[in-house]
Design brief:
This protein is mostly helical and about 325 residues long. It has 13 helices and no strands. The chain has one domain. The chain has helices spanning about 5-20, 25-45, 50-55, 70-80, 100-120, 130-150, 155-165, 180-210, 220-235, 240, 255-265, 270-290, 300-320.
Length: about 325
């Protein structure tokens, strides 16, 4: 697909409307399902279209209808239109189809904006060493916060003054409080690092011969090992979407999954994947404390950590190569 064609932008706009209607998190779970299906298609020697153009591209990628649309529309509904039943712009669980037509329209417009940001960031030296999809998610959400809530990236100054910039008010402000305890976070993230690194290793070994025979594209051969564990992690968030109380306390681990997979692909080491998994978990929590905890809208901590973590890993790889 031509990324700037009228048809591509129209399809992106439509996906954004649907994503806003579904709500931010549920649309992201659907992205995970599409990505996993796309990986299976590539594994069977098929096209990478479903993976790269739908699950990770303009049709329903996280930067478009698959996440940004729902989060930006929630900020608009809560902060400007005042018709989000929960009243919170951080609400990424509620479907927005019951709000109003203009809320859905904002979702479509932000999907197009997120897609265009990916194209722009990919052309900027140094910036293009980051994960441009994750970066566009964060920038679009910060833009929605500024436009609809008149709030800066760090959030509410009064909250910062009262609890401290990195403070959590004993977990009351925390993004995912059941993951924030350091010991638990480190051990879990190490496990994710090893799992994701192993999945990347196995899928790369399986796909390399297919690439050598010309059965699959080079993009597919690289992206499947990188994204497969991420897709599993995204689908697992259906528990967070549908659960309540103790049952809702699912881990959020797609950040650790993709960065650990990238670490293995760059350095060929499961030890490196485990270490990066731990660092990714800590970085995700740091992003939450600096941009989510004191904010009035959702700015995604995993996306922020993925964008920055990918940049750092690519820079380190370039230095040691």
């Amino acid at each position: 697909m031509e990324p700037l064609s009228v048809n591509t932008l129209l399809l992106c706009f439509g996906g954004g409307i649907v994503g806003a209607a579904l709500g931010g998190l549920f649309s992201f779970v659907i992205v995970g399902l599409i990505v996993l299906t796309g990986c299976l298609v590539v594994f069977n020697g098929g096209s990478d279209f479903l993976l790269l153009q739908v699950g990770l591209g303009p049709l329903f990628g996280p930067q478009a209808g698959g996440f940004v649309a729902g989060t930006a529309a929630a900020a608009y509904a809560a902060g400007f239109r005042k018709n989000l039943p929960s009243g919170s712009a951080k609400d990424i669980l509620s479907p927005l189809v019951g709000t109003s037509w203009d809320v859905l329209l904002v979702g479509g417009l932000f999907a197009v904006a997120g897609h265009l940001m990916v194209q722009l960031f990919g052309q900027i030296p140094f910036i293009n060493q980051a994960d441009c999809i994750a970066l566009s998610v964060v920038v679009a959400q910060l833009l929605a916060r500024l436009l609809f809530l008149r709030e800066m990236p760090w959030g509410n100054r009064d909250s910062i003054r009262e609890y401290g910039f990195l403070g959590t008010n004993s977990g009351a402000l925390s993004w995912v409080p059941w993951m924030a305890e350091p010991g638990r976070l480190v051990v879990f993230s190490m496990g994710v690092g090893l799992l994701s690194g192993a999945i990347a290793m196995g899928t790369k070994n399986a796909l390399d011969p297919m690439l050598a025979k010309g059965l699959i594209s080079a993009a597919g051969a690289f992206v499947v090992p990188l994204i497969l564990a991420w897709g599993v992690a995204a689908v697992s968030l259906v528990g967070l979407q549908l659960g309540s109380g103790e049952v809702q306390k699912f881990p959020v681990w797609h950040c650790q999954a993709i960065l650990s997979a990238l670490a293995f692909l760059l350095f060929g080491s499961l030890v490196a994947a485990a270490i990066v998994g731990v660092l990714a978990g800590l970085l995700q929590e740091l992003v939450a404390r600096t941009m989510w905890n004191h904010g009035s809208s959702h700015v995604d901590p995993p996306a922020g950590a993925i964008a920055l973590g990918t940049l750092l890993l690519n820079l380190v790889h370039g230095f040691v190569k």
